[in-house]
Amino acid sequence: MSPKASPVNDTTASLTIAQRGQALAKSAKRYALAYRALVMHPKALWEPERYCFFIGYPRSGHTLVASLLNAHPEIIISHELDALKFIRRSARRTTLFGMILARDRWFVGGGSQWTGYDYALEGLSQGSATRPRVIGDKCGGHTSLALSKDPHLVDRLRATVRLPCVVIHITRNPYDNIARMARRSTEDADARTKLEHAVDDYVTMARAAYEARSRWDPELWIDMRHEDFCLEPATCLVELTTFLGVEPHPAWLEAATDKVHESPNLSRYDVEWPPETIARVQSELVAFDILRDYRFDP
Predict the structure, then answer these.
(1) What CATH number is given to the structural domain containing 116?
(2) pLDDT digits (tens, 9 = 90+) for 12-42
(3) Which residues contact residue 125 at a Cβ distance below 8 angstroms, ignoring those fewer than 6 apart?
(4) Is residue 3 part of a domain?
């Protein structure tokens, strides 16, 4: 983190008694839903061959990719469960898998809508995979931040799931990520301060992702650019299913490919960038091989 970086806030310590009670009730409900999901789908307990999670940055296309993979009949990937949070709480394997199933059904049951986008694929297996060979969770930005605080969480994850843990690391032009992060910030600050803090958080996440990557088995890690995914979705989806060890069934591949727009939004142009902030980002990117080729202007 750079000298001016603000730490990522952990608000747990500042929760009021009422908020703690609400959090406890929410957790109890999740555990109950997990048990119900397992009763309804017990095969999830023994059939998965791999555990998949995403690492990276907010607004990178994780939700799109995860939703498309989740429509595959042999893949269950929940939306924003934040599985590492439950690993910190020492959740058991069966409980974690049950929460993944419950969260998946919750998201699909709500129409697979998120931040104004529709991720539903009618007629496919979202929320109802019958032969789950891959199970996991998508929460890329939160995962990076969690690992920046405690890199050993991945060791606890492996010990809990008792499966090979595979990682999907999706990157997007960092200026687009940072712009979206700044615009969605709820911080009580001016636009320039929000932008600087978004740069701080992005760099924190990038360092955590690359530290994890340096210690990971290369066979269990895949890097993918969001821009490439938009341009060649079928090719990228085949690459991802091959990486996950499942077949890219033709009906799924065709429907998933049709869901992808040809080009990502250029969010960087939606905010005002001081020249020195652009230069700062460019100097930070040099440290990361898959990011250093990105530029503010094409």
Answers:
(1) 3.40.50
(2) 334 454 544 454 445 545 555 554 555 556 5
(3) 70, 71, 72, 73, 252
(4) no
Other C-beta atoms closer than 10 Å to the C-beta of 193 total 14
Q: For tokens 């496919």, name the residue.
A: 124
Considering only 92-96, 122-126, 237-241, which range has the smallest mean pLDDT?
A: 122-126
Residue 166 pairs in a beta bridge with 52
Residues in Cβ contact with 46 at an 8 Å cutoff, skipping those fewer than 6 apart: none
Residue 9 gets which letter from DSSP? P
- What's at 191, amino acid-wise? A
Q: Which residues form the domain of 126?
A: 15-285
Cα–Cα distances (Å) from 249 to 91, 125, 222, in that order, read: 34, 12, 21
Half-sphere exposure of 294 (CA within 13 A, CB side): 28
For 40-160, list the strands marked E by DSSP.
50-55, 75-79, 113-114, 117-118, 134-138
**Number of residues in the chain:** 298
